[in-house]
Specification:
Layout lengths: L1 H6 L10 E8 L2 E8 L4 E6 L7 H5 L2
Antiparallel strand pairs: 1-2, 2-3
């Protein structure tokens, strides 16, 4: 993982407005996006259903 981070040439995170973090949990892939400019966190989930964030992610 360290070689990947070094090759990204990111010196300071505040210089970026979006940070994407791909995750795997219980055989489900999803991506958390930290929007630093608007101070929001969004989840991109390929198994999205009509379920609230609180119910699905216990948040």
């Amino acid at each position: 993982m360290e070689p990947v981070l070094i090759s990204a040439y990111v010196k300071k995170i505040p210089d970026k407005s979006l940070i994407f973090v791909p995750l795997l949990h219980d055989d489900n892939f999803y991506c958390v996006c930290f929007n630093l400019r608007d101070m929001k966190v969004e989840v991109v989930d390929n198994n999205a259903k009509d379920v609230s964030m609180k119910d699905k992610y216990n948040e």
